[in-house]
Backbone:
């Protein structure tokens, strides 16, 4: 009642003082519209990513002696007696994970002996090499005395299959979501212009128009290369828009630079995505990229500057870079692996060694936050590769011990833990100053914020980076802030959904590890600034100020594009070329399927 | 790939943690959001620690604090400003009981939905239960002396008058460096200090005696002006009163009567009753904790210390506002409505105020009878029941107290006047109360 009465009072006052109040009314309306748009954008993207049909594909078949046909639904198939095998064969002579049958990018198949007791025989010859043996349609493969005939789908089959699969966009048309995003960007830009008042310069509207142009340019580029899905990019642009608003509030002079970083990030994103189209390329470059991790961290340690206790930055030509952001991508490359390698113990030990070196460097750099993020990435990769809970438990125990040592030897980390959860007892001291202001600012924003550009929290040290959640909550309100959180979480759910249908386990593991990095980093940022977790000073993906972080985040999005095997969805996944002569004899049996993928309109 | 898929579900653990973590945050936001937003570093509504939004009015809508051109302004009359300083607050946020500090969240118009935002940054109007005119009368009656004047409606718990001296003009605040702890004008002595209650505490001793000693009205005491207890002597300054009972003892405020009653009751019972009447504890007044009272519960039974305690001397200290609650309860047949000076708003204001029993009905009626003293009838046409107090403070002038209520149902007012080191209750505190009560009944 009191609330409604006050609201009415405010509206009356607004109308009474209309000459000076038009802007204020605009702000009031924008405050309420932005959260609605944010919800609509995120819901549309998330539903589109998670609910779209993605029919199972058939890439080949195995014919058993009794005539039964077993489908090969993946590019990477494990054949074995384990229930979780992709081709499940219940013969006592077949081992649990007996063989792997793997298709590469050029439709060449190889069969590998994975963990068999009795070996794999191809056309009468036992496989000796760890690198497997090539198989072609018509070849016989014998596992544990069971002989079967292998048939690969040919180009015509694959083309027809692709044509019959559902394309994304059944639920929501991408350009309509994008239209909402554009509206969000326009209103946000408008609000920032109103808030800037007399100090408004042309650079602010120019930057927002540039961002809108970039968004649509990317969309049209995707259309030109005949790809449909744009949800991941839309979320990226949504978060980048919020990030741009944070920069516009806190450091308006750097807003132009921020646009430049978004452009760089997009370039990096498209290069990464294009690069990952070809798994052979990726496999070739994995080892060299793995070295990037320790090398970048060593360079940072040697030439870096110490800011706020940690060495994270290096200065090159007056610009600051944070190499550890790219090390995250390198770690993902180094850690993810194709299916046939998952079963080789040796491989994971190399990765473990690499992680050890990286964490050691981070400890020397005093970068506790990054170390935590790397550790979570390690846990996810290690589990996805080994499936072994015991290893994971051991890792956590080891990390706990290392953490205790770190706490004991580093007073500034111990200090953070000492004040953790008790920020209000340290209101004007280290350990509470930033967090109490962050909570106050976040609560001050309410659900709808005080309006972009109207806040004060960005003036607090690291307000626009490590405590950016408070800036977003204060100016845009809790709803938009939670939408940003949901956007990052949506990546994680999408990578789980796509893990099973990726072209290679490499992509699946990479996407999962990336989403773990993004979600965990976001949680450290949000809950750390709100005194629910210890304050570790990490960035909110895409939103926090920091060019390196932004570019790296855009690059990471390519990992999600690489697992998006919905038909014609992603530029990072190749589609079969039109066969030279169509209507050729298909040897793969398919169920007749409804091909009306053009039906089913938006909403 | 199925293996990879099943292992990928581990990511959902992280998703669950994220949802739980954010849920926990939102929960904390709902519970603590108002507190967080009311911190003085919330620059949306505070400027250099002082609220720059919101209007404070008294019970009749008189504006006591406003915002003009983004600057905080106060009432135009200097006496009104001085007399309401401790309920309105100052520019620096030094007066903790001032609305600008204590009710900042209400003034900012903060709520969880729209946060600190208000369209023109105007905030909310907050109404106090204080009558600024009465406050001004009380302030003038104190005439610069240190002290406290409190008046409440004992039926509703509304505080109509709350004045604390020393005060200052918030529009022309004194240089902070000139303020020492002793002359601290930032403290609202009505709520944030405790004082020796002197003879007003005899009401507590009387209440305990009425309930614990069956035929206390039949007890006869002998006042020779002094009473030997061990090696010490309890003095009755107004004595000798000769032979007297508890009724006459109350009227003439005989120390011997109440000293002996305390000795009869014992330390434990006296401490129990002081606590029961909230006088040794602390209560909440519009969300502000009052200063704690004190009772020496280690005084040996039969000692001079216990006798002194019985007459409100020795180590007893009482916060004036809890004394107001006690006096009001006597006038209200033992019941007390929760004291407040921030007007109740919203849905809760539609219901009668929360009240509770402080004194048993019977005891309250007896105390009411004991306070029927001719000297109290200073406002013609109104039945004032009150007790004077003159609290001896070693070496200095005593605190002058006058505590009571009007026993007319249409004028259910309780009051406390306390002049620090002012002299005798009857000659110093009572005239102040008379002026204030006269002003109230004339309104």
Residues:
């Amino acid at each position: 009642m009191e609330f409604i009465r006050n609201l009415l009072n405010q509206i009356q006052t607004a109308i009474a003082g209309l000459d000076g109040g038009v802007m204020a009314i605009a702000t009031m309306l924008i405050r309420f519209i932005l959260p609605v748009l944010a919800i609509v954008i995120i819901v549309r993207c998330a539903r589109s990513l998670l609910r779209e049909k993605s029919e199972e594909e058939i890439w080949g078949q195995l014919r058993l002696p009794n005539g039964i046909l077993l489908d090969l639904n993946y590019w990477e198939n494990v054949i074995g007696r384990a229930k979780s095998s992709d081709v499940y064969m219940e013969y006592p002579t077949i081992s649990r994970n007996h063989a792997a049958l793997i298709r590469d990018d050029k439709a060449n198949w190889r069969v590998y002996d994975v963990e068999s007791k009795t070996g794999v025989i191809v056309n009468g010859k036992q496989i000796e090499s760890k690198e497997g043996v090539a198989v072609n349609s018509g070849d016989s493969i014998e596992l544990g005395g069971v002989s079967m005939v292998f048939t690969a789908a040919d180009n015509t089959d694959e083309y027809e299959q692709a044509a019959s699969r559902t394309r994304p966009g059944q639920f929501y048309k991408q350009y309509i979501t994008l239209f909402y995003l554009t509206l969000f960007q326009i209103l946000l830009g408008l609000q920032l212009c109103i808030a800037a008042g007399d100090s408004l310069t042309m650079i602010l509207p120019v930057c927002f128009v540039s961002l809108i142009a970039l968004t649509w340019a990317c969309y049209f580029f995707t259309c030109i290369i005949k790809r449909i899905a744009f949800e991941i990019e839309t979320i990226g642009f949504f978060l980048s828009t919020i990030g741009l608003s944070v920069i516009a509030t806190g450091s308006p002079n750097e807003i132009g630079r921020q646009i430049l970083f978004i452009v760089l990030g997009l370039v990096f994103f498209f290069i990464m995505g294009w690069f990952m189209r070809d798994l052979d390329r990726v496999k070739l470059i994995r080892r060299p990229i793995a070295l990037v991790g320790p090398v970048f961290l060593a360079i940072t340690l040697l030439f870096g500057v110490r800011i706020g206790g940690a060495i994270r930055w290096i200065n090159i030509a007056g610009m600051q870079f944070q190499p550890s952001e790219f090390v995250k991508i390198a770690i993902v490359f180094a850690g993810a692996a194709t299916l046939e390698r998952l079963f080789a113990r040796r491989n994971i030990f190399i990765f473990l060694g690499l992680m050890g070196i990286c964490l050691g460097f981070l400890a020397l750099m005093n970068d506790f936050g990054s170390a935590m993020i790397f550790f979570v990435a390690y846990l996810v990769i290690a589990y996805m590769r080994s499936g072994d809970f015991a290893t994971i438990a051991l890792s956590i125990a080891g990390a706990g011990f290392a953490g205790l040592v770190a706490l004991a030897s580093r007073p500034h980390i111990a200090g953070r833990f000492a004040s953790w959860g008790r920020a209000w007892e340290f209101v004007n001291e280290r350990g509470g100053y930033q967090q109490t202001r962050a909570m106050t600012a976040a609560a001050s924003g309410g659900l709808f914020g005080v309006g972009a550009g109207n806040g004060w929290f960005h003036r607090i040290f690291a307000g626009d980076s490590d405590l950016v959640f408070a800036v977003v909550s204060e100016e845009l309100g809790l709803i938009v802030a939670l939408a940003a959180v949901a956007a990052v979480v949506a990546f994680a759910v999408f990578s789980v959904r796509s893990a099973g249908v990726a072209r290679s386990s490499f992509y699946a593991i990479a996407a999962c590890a990336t989403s773990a990095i993004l979600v965990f980093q976001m949680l450290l940022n949000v809950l750390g600034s709100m005194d629910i977790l210890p304050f570790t000073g990490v960035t909110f993906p895409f939103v926090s100020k920091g060019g390196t972080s932004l570019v790296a985040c855009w690059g990471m999005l390519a990992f999600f594009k690489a697992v998006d095997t919905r038909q014609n969805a992603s530029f990072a996944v190749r589609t079969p070329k039109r066969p030279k002569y169509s209507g050729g004899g298909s040897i793969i049996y398919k169920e007749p399927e409804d091909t009306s993928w053009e039906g089913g309109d938006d909403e | 790939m199925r293996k990879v898929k099943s292992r990928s579900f581990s990511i959902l653990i992280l998703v669950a943690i994220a949802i739980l973590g954010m849920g926990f945050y939102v929960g904390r936001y709902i519970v603590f959001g108002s507190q967080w937003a009311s911190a003085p570093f919330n620059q949306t509504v505070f400027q250099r620690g002082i609220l720059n939004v919101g209007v404070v009015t008294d019970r009749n809508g008189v504006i006591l604090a406003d915002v003009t051109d983004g600057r905080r302004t106060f009432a135009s009359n200097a006496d009104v400003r001085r007399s309401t300083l401790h309920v309105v607050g100052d520019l620096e946020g030094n007066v903790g009981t001032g609305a600008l500090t204590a009710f900042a969240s209400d003034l900012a118009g903060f709520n969880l939905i729209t946060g600190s935002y208000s369209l023109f940054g105007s905030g909310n109007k907050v109404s106090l239960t204080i009558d600024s005119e009465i406050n001004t009368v009380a302030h003038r009656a104190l005439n610069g002396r240190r002290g406290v004047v409190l008046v409440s409606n004992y039926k509703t718990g509304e505080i109509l008058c709350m004045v604390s001296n020393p005060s200052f003009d918030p529009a022309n605040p004194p240089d902070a460096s000139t303020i020492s702890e002793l002359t601290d004008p930032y403290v609202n002595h009505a709520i944030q200090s405790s004082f020796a209650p002197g003879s007003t505490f005899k009401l507590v001793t009387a209440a305990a005696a009425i309930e614990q000693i069956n035929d206390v009205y039949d007890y006869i005491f002998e006042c020779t002006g002094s009473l030997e207890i061990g090696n010490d002597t309890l003095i009755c300054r107004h004595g000798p009163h000769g032979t007297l009972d508890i009724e006459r003892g109350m009227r003439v405020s005989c120390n011997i009567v109440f000293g002996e009653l305390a000795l009869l009751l014992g330390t434990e019972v006296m401490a129990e009753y002081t606590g029961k009447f909230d006088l040794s504890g602390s209560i909440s007044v519009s969300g502000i904790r009052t200063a704690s009272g004190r009772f020496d519960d280690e005084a040996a039974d039969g000692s001079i210390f216990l006798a002194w305690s019985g007459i409100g001397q020795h180590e007893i200290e009482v916060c004036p506002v809890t004394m107001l609650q006690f006096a009001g309860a006597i006038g209200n047949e033992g019941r007390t409505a929760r004291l407040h000076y921030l007007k109740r708003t919203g849905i809760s204001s539609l219901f009668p105020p929360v009240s509770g029993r402080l004194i048993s009905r019977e005891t309250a009626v007896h105390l009411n009878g004991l306070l029927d003293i001719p000297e109290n009838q200073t406002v013609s046409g109104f039945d004032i029941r009150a007790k004077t107090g003159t609290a001896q403070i070693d070496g200095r002038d005593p605190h002058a107290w006058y505590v009571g209520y009007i026993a007319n149902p249409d004028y259910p007012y309780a009051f406390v006047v306390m002049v620090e080191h002012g002299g005798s209750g009857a000659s110093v505190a009572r005239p102040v109360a008379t002026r204030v009560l006269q002003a109230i009944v004339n309104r």
About this structure: The longest strand of chain A covers residues 146-152. Chain A has 17 helices and 14 strands.
